[in-house]
Design goal:
mainly alpha
Length: about 80
């Protein structure tokens, strides 16, 4: 079995994925705040990823893709 590299993700793809994961909240701010609470980082950092100001880290792309691929709800990841 060969190992597949993680799918890269840009800011627009992250934003679209977060819309799916959080049942389409109306604003980028709302999506970034919800996701930041799920993963335990600042919402400003998530907005930087979405805007393209910062690259979406590989581990975040992997997490989001796994959540989408396996129908994992954000609330399942919270402590």
């Amino acid at each position: 079995m060969s190992h597949k590299p993680p799918k890269p993700m840009d800011g627009a793809q992250l934003d679209a994925a977060l819309s799916q994961l959080y049942d389409n909240p109306a604003s980028v701010r709302a999506r970034s705040l919800l996701f930041s609470e799920t993963i335990g980082c600042g919402d400003r950092q998530v907005r930087k990823w979405i805007s393209g100001e910062a690259e979406v880290p590989r581990h975040i792309a992997m997490l989001v893709n796994a959540m989408l691929d396996h129908d994992i709800k954000p609330e399942e990841l919270r402590p």
